[in-house]
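Model it.
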Amino acid sequence: MGNLSKYNEDGSVLREIQLHMLDILKVFDKICQEYKIPYWLSSGTLLGAVRHGGFIPWDDDIDVELLREDLLRLIPIIQHQYHHPIPKYGLIYQDHHSDPGYLFTHTKIRDLKSHICEQNNIDVNYEYRGLFIDIFALEKTTPIIIKLANIARCYIRLCGHKNDKWGIKRAFDDCCYHVAHGYYSILRLVSKLFKPKYYYDQLGSGYIMKRNPQYIFPLQRIKFEDIEFNAPADCDAFLRDAFGDYRRLPPESERCGHIIDADFICNKK
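Modeled.
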């Protein structure tokens, strides 16, 4: 594979970002293991675990997946002040309820002691802009239902509150968000008529990539940066579905991350 360590050498900013995100993942895993919440590494994070034994050298995010019903069980656990208040780890769970400027359907666990800037300024309206891990919830549905859901998604502006002196834009986006999610609930009922077999990102995500449950369950543990985390049962089949020939490295021009600037204190957990 050549010398890939040039991207994230020890002591580099990227490596510090990766290790900080790894700390967040360890907290997430600890809670999920204690409360028996099944999750698994996904996307580039799983690819990195299989192909590199850890982070893709130029990658600067962590992706995990779980079923939507398990996420709904997880949320009150990680927010409960007497059990696992993630603020004690310097973290916060970010969704539209905790951060009105955040309008995506996937959620995040954010670090409260850091500040980053992402490409295209997509995080300009967020209250919380620290380092994070992405949490993607999956549900059984069909491509047709997803396309219908994406019609509503188009009306949710994912950014645009800058200089919103009177809060009109934010109020409009908030209204669109809640109307869209009501629409998604109706589509979920319709979806059951199709008796779907495959998992997709929950409605409103904008993504249409199926996951075969046979490749996911039962979960296994896999090493990522010499620490074990949950992974799909058949990582090879899962990754081939997602990336095709995932063993082939992308051209150097495509080896880039999402964060353009980071300011943080590396506080090991």
